[in-house]
């Protein structure tokens, strides 16, 4: 997994495998397109092109686009088809059981970019993945939950969120008791849906022509 700092004080997390998976998907789509062109000429190219473009765009949505941005006052979860802005004032819990999940009184926002680790991670975790985590990462027995391990995607992203949340609480910069009335902004990517639908329609039409 990877993380970085954007403009200002915004920290971002995204899977390290993103460019590799996206690139591999694009190469596969390009290979299929080239093969159809070579074997069936222009007609084969026209028939496969909409599906190849749609597959490439879907790969970008699924593998490249998802990330978690931790800003001064909110966490922005970018998933394939929607972006959700969760103000820290709306948070009541941060869960990492299956993936990084921001819990508010009215909605649970799961981050596509930060899935939880497999069970084998518990047996390979080193001391450096268990120490000096934000206080809320530990349970009542001072144990670290599997999803909070620093080497995991959910744990790394969760650490960024929890550290910022803890800082806001400790510096009294966060208004308390307003989680129930603090709005969570959800924005669906209609463009992505239209583009994929258009590729499917064009692909079906190309098969019938």
Automatic annotation (TrEMBL):
Task: Specify the Low molecular weight protein antigen 6 PH domain's residue ranges.
Answer: 65-102
Q: Which domain of life is it from?
A: Bacteria
Q: Which InterPro entries would you find in this protein's record?
A: CFP-6_PH
The name this protein goes by in its record: Low molecular weight protein antigen 6 PH domain-containing protein
